[in-house]
Amino acid sequence: MPATATQADFEIYRRELTGYCYRMLGSAFEADDAVQETMLRAWKNADSFEGRSSLRSWLYKIATNVCLDALRGEKRRALPMDLGPSSPPLETLLRPWPTEDLWVTPVPDVKVMPEHGDPAEIAAMRESVRLAFVTALQHLPARQRAALILCEVLKLPATEAAQVLDSSVASRPSPSCRTTSGRPRCSRRTPSCSSATSTPSSATT
Which of 22, 149, 176, 180 can bridge 189 by disulfide, Cβ–Cβ 3.0-4.6 Å? Predict the structure, then answer.
């Protein structure tokens, strides 16, 4: 790893990584845990970074794998009892809430918003962590969710998003995903990083 890349260099990306993990997981608490795990994996695997991509892309790749691992886990957040329908305590009703009822929690701006920057860009970034948008993201498959965030929110080029997702970019046109009425929607357009949702070529980091 380049000698100039230190723990302090990793910390530069903590806020934006927290925002990314929050959009992926829908929980500020889980996002903090995911970023902490990302930093730990980055530190442990520092020697594997060969500089073929930017440090930022490398960290996003690790964060993506951390989030995908978390989303594969069986233990996910459920709605609290008082937000569900009232019912008698019958044994047949004492079962986990379905995954579509995951409870999305807000995140403080201080954790995800840059301290300085273009006001228009900051406003757009704030929109991308609104509860309605983040809740809508949770309805997408995990890899499609990651591709949409990387491309439409973070504005990564398709090739860079494909590297983050450890996938290849399809040469054929693929859907360009945006949000309409608070829900992500896809339309057939020019090649975009939605094509990076193909099966990963290998698992790393």
Answer: 176
Closest CA relative to residue 52, chosen from 196, 193, 166: 166
Is residue 137 within 8 Å of residue 23, measured between CB atoms?
Answer: yes
Question: Which of 122-128's residues contact partners 24+ apart within 8 Å by CB, and which partners?
Answer: 125/19, 125/153, 128/19, 128/23, 128/153
- Helix, strand and coil content of the chain, in percent to the nearest 5, comes to 55, 5, 40
What lies within 8 Å, CB to CB, of 80 at 6+ separation is 103
CA atoms of 159 and 195, how far apart (whole Å) = 10
Q: Bridge-partner residues for 183, per DSSP?
A: 180
Sorted by sequence, the CB contacts under 8 Å of residue 168 that are 6+ apart come out as: 162, 196, 198, 201
Q: What is the pLDDT of residue 196?
A: 56
pLDDT means over runs of 10, the chain (205 residues): 66 95 95 96 82 87 96 61 48 46 81 86 90 93 95 92 78 44 45 50 48
Q: For residue 11, count other CB atoms closer than 10 A to its CB.
A: 11
Q: Are 107 and 22 in contact (CB under 8 A)?
A: yes
User: Angle of helix 14-25 relative to helix 55-72, nearest 10 degrees?
Assistant: 30
- pTM beyond cutoff 0.85: no
